[in-house]
Amino acid sequence: MSARTLTQSLAVMRKELRDGLRDRRAIFSLVFGAAVGPLLVGGILTFMAGRVRDAQDVTIPVVGSTHAPALVQWLRQQPGVTVTPGPADPEDAIRRQAEDVVVVIPDEFEAAFAAYRPAEINVLADSSRTAARPKQQRVRALLSRYGSEVAALRLVARGVSPSVVTPVRPIEVDIASSQQRAAMIIDFIPLYIMLAAFTGGMLIATDATAGERERGSLEALLVTPASRRALAAGKWMAAGVFSCTSVALTTVLCVLVVNRIPLQDFGVRLFIDQWKVAGLVGVVLPMCALAPAMQLYLSTFAKSFKEAQSYLGFLVLVPMLPGLIGSLAPIRGLWWMYAVPFLGQHLLLADIMGGKPMPAIHVLLSVAATAAVAVGLFQGFARLLTRERIIFGR
Amino acid sequence: MMQVDAVRKQFGAVTAVDSVSFTVPDGAITGLLGPNGAGKTTTLRMLYALLQPDAGQVLVDGIDATLHPQEAQGRMGVLPDISGLYPRLTAREHIAYFAELQGLSSRETAARAEALITLLDMQAIADRRVAGFSHGERTKVALARALVHHPQNVLLDEPTNGLDVMSTRAVRRLIRQLRDEGRAVLFSSHVMQEVSALCDHIVVIAHGRVVATGSPDALREQTGHHNLEDAFVALVGLDAEADA
Fold this sequence. Notes:
The structure holds two protein chains of two kinds.
Chain A: H1 3-21, H2 24-56, E1 58-63, H3 69-77, E2 81-85, H4 90-95, E3 101-104, H5 109-114, E4 122-125, H6 133-157, H7 177-187, H8 189-215, H9 218-222, H10 228-260, H11 274-284, H12 287-301, H13 305-315, H14 321-328, H15 343-353, H16 360-384, H17 388-391
Parallel strand pairs in A: 1-2, 1-3
Antiparallel strand pairs in A: 3-4
Helix pairs in contact in A: 1-10, 2-6, 2-7, 2-8, 2-10, 8-10, 8-12, 8-13, 10-11, 10-12, 10-16, 11-15, 12-13, 12-16
Chain B: E1 2-11, E2 14-24, E3 28-33, H1 40-47, E4 55-60, E5 63-64, H2 69-74, E6 76-79, H3 91-101, H4 106-119, H5 135-146, E7 153-157, H6 165-180, E8 184-189, H7 192-198, E9 201-206, E10 209-214, H8 216-223, H9 228-236, H10 238-243
Parallel strand pairs in B: 3-8, 3-9, 6-7, 7-8
Antiparallel strand pairs in B: 1-2, 1-4, 4-5, 9-10
Helix pairs in contact in B: 3-4, 3-5, 8-9
């Protein structure tokens, strides 16, 4: 690239950047595209953390507490438990979702309890409400613990060791579902970072190609002695700058979100240190060259800005493909897969998030292959600008 | 100086331009006159090397535009048929952008932008974004960006199309000034009065062919019509078309 070509492409880049920074749509696509993933992760995790805490600090409405004063007393002594008088119509309260769970102690409780017959307690809940489920589980667990404590006391009173009736004691290793779900949501972070590479430069890429043609400014631009390659390079760099900005923004937001949310509530330990961040950005960075090159190439075929936009809308699905396929059948990382753009990044990002070691050859393969495809698409884009059919429309 | 030598351009089965030859000398205004669809724009596009002729040759100051398009383009200032602007850039930014692409230094760029803004009487709008500009204002910006590098050869595709009287006069004044500076000016039009008021030479083109060349007086003589409009109608065979 000669000095003159370089000066010209830098001029094009500066113009496209200035144009893009003044374009509200371009800024919106950059900021919104970068923020939506981290905000989603943050929002869902905060919501889930709230539910986990809700289950630990539980308020139990009890109807008929006078029938079982000992039970109510015991409940009150449990940490995080508050007992309140239950609603007049418990079923209606559940149906209206005024209460998540209501404990109803029937009149016969005292008599049955005193006669050593199983004393029934009604736990009213709507099992279809996922949001109320942790609380319902906590209430059931409390009641059954009370049951076993009373049983143990009764056995001791009869001179029988409670361990006699505990032939098997399962030790529960609690892999709570909320933990899994939290981990799943965090697994989306690499995908959001990849998507940011696409959303960041999208508007610039369409405006600089299809938009240029639609406005009728392309002809005047191509009549200048700047080579097509210089023009193409300037547009590529401008879209790349937006794409990189978007990736950086998403990464920073994701790190902020993950470090802000008390993930230990879920029993999830996630450690995003600067090395992990550097790895994530390093693996995605070649995408900031590939995504704009793809977008520029495709939008050059479009006659109008809107047509280009609809093409590029589909393009955003491409980085999601490996994740989709992987969710159906797990992808085992064979060496050649790292040389496939998108798939390579998908595997490497999963390795980084999982804290697995990354062989340098895998990183090298992915970066080199992605860069090569990006350069190829760029050449194609520059060549399209020399075609009479493309310049003057079809 | 620009020379067009027997160029031909075909789009599919349609021959848009067929063996068109003419010369645009320095220090003169040459008018490319023809009805809509005659092949004016196609001819100009071959001249400024965005279309490749299927046959024939285009020379710009002796440089073959097909073989060395960028060198040829550097010697031309072009106002294309469709001259879109960037709505979010100001008039001055348009001029500066094209100055950079033409290889002007930043000092030259600033001075040249100022000179063009004065020349085209754009002081009041120079630093406004072009989004709200009138048609006349837009044409001025497009002209300024075409002339930013002092091109020896100037090609204007229907520059006064749709302009009001004041803007038209400003453009005509500019065209005469360019001629007086010794530049080769080629401008296309389908408006008779325009051409007769401005041009030293006229190339009449119809159905992709040159049907007549010469000074306005010579054309009147050739056709035997005292009125140039009648001469034009006779030359391009519009009579025959109207009858058909």
